[in-house]
Amino acid sequence: MIKTTTLDNGITLVYEPLEFVKSVSIGIWIRNGSIDETPENNGISHFIEHMMFKGSAKRNAKEIADEMARIGGHINAFTAKEYTCYYAHTLDEHLETAIDVLSDMLTHPEFKEEEINKEKGVILEEIAMSEDAPEDIVHDQLENEVFKPSRLSMDILGTRENIRGFTREKLFEYLNCHYVAKNMVIAIAGAFNEKKVIKILNEAFKDTSTQATLTRNLDFSREATFIFKEKDIEQIHMVINFPSISYKDDAIFVLSVLNTIIGGGINSKLFMGIREDKGLTYSIYSYDESYEATGMFNIYAAFNPTQTDEVIVNTLKEIHTFLEEGIDEDDLDKIKEQIKCNLIIGYENMNNRMSNYGKAMLMQQHIKTQEEIVEAIDAVTIGAIMTMARDIFLDPSISLSIVGHLKDIDQERIKTLCKKLQYM
């Protein structure tokens, strides 16, 4: 049973004790990401995430790693556009140690200047690595342009200039404004004694700041955009982008079904039509990116530059055919079973379970149970799917991002092909 409570200092705790497992996952979720930054400090959320592992009042970086290794546990973190998460997965008998390590990192970071300077080099290398990955570039450059000038457009990694300029003072100034109790959710799933764990958490996080949270700026605008980046690689990497919905929209489960139909698996329209039937590309799929205020529906493909026009034309034809013909009840039932199967299998992993609870409570202040989600998926109708498909695919602000050799690509023709979807 999923339960929620509030720690003494105002941190929200969501937890699910389970008797059928021997492991436990815990995540510290902070409502802070690149959307909360400014152009002047863009990248600081991700930088702070790195620095949390570089030493605290009780442990240096090696001691943090060694202590988790000693208990056979796994500890890590990640930064997204709207949140940051620090998490650990271990055996139930070692949960108290994992809590001690995580809380020590987050409530008593040292941010030593020598460690800051070393980490600047690490993150500059991470930026360079991302610039060598066309799969990352093609998506990142799309978001950077589609969401300009809103804060959603900013890279999570930040800019080289900003990274080089971060100081201990700047890190603590930002940390003290964002890493506050009302901005945090602790999520736990697995084997543990709830009364004991709540007592431990109250003590472990007693030094977390209780000052007021900052208001997030959710203003955004979007325009149709076409971005072409020359890169010396063998394939073209492409993303076709359509406006979509927020994860707070009641139709989010309709979107999940639509995505699975279009490009979410080996029986999807795009995989069968573009790869299996025509052999135009090895990799093609769709995915949705939902944020608090908006969303994106994207189609990704990688292919030989000589097949650019053919891939785009046939991709848009597959969408147009779907808009005309729809889907029958038998195929819809198969899609629903596929989604429910993936969901239920995912919930057998404690880390997935914890992540679902933590993110939902942090961003939506509400958690749907596994049963409620299955019910919502079962309730999706053909009519709702087709209404959403028309809203998404016939929106005039269709955008496109391409990375690869451009010399044989007619950019104006590609723009025209994309814009024709509304009139096919």
Give an overview of the whole structure.
The chain is of the alpha+beta class. The chain has 2 domains: 3-204, Cytochrome Bc1 Complex, Chain A, domain 1, CATH 3.30.830; 226-423, Cytochrome Bc1 Complex, Chain A, domain 1, CATH 3.30.830. The chain is built from 16 helices and 11 strands. It has helices spanning 44-51, 61-70, 95-107, 113-131, 134-146, 160-165, 168-178, 194-204, 252-263, 269-277, 308-325, 329-346, 350-364, 370-378, 382-393, 411-419; strands at 3-6, 12-17, 23-30, 74-79, 84-91, 184-190, 226-230, 236-244, 283-290, 295-303, 399-404. Strands 1-2-6-3-5-4 form a 6-stranded mixed sheet, with helices on both faces. It has a 5-stranded mixed sheet with strand order 7-11-8-10-9, with helices on both faces. The termini are far apart. The relative contact order is 0.15. The model has no long low-confidence stretch (mean pLDDT 94). It is an enzyme of class 3 (hydrolase). This is Specific processing protease. Residues 166-338 form the Peptidase M16 C-terminal domain. Residues 19-159 form the Peptidase M16 N-terminal domain.
